[in-house]
Amino acid sequence: MIVAELIEQLKYMDQDAEVHFQYNYGDHWRTQVAPTVDSVEEGAVKYSDYHRMDKVVDEEDFDYDDNGEPTYGENVKKVVILA
User: Fold this and answer.
1) Could you give the number of structural domains in the chain?
2) Is the dihedral of CA 8, 25, 16, 44 positive or negative?
3) Which residue among 9, 47, 50, 58 is least crowded, i.e. fewest CB within 10 A of its CB?
4) What is the pLDDT of residues 56-66, one digit of tens each?
């Protein structure tokens, strides 16, 4: 999903409703949990073979250009992260 698609979906939602993020807790019963979203920020991710999904790349792992802007290495994507 891209930001424009998220905005399009949110237009039809109750503007006063809390926002939660659903995921599988990983327990025996495959419980679906839904903590609240506390922040929306730009970040970077890279695919992890160990996790079999994208993982957040720490800012300290970036290189920076002459203007102080982060440069993303191979296979690193700039994304919007809901946390």
Assistant:
1) 1
2) negative
3) 50
4) 998 776 777 88
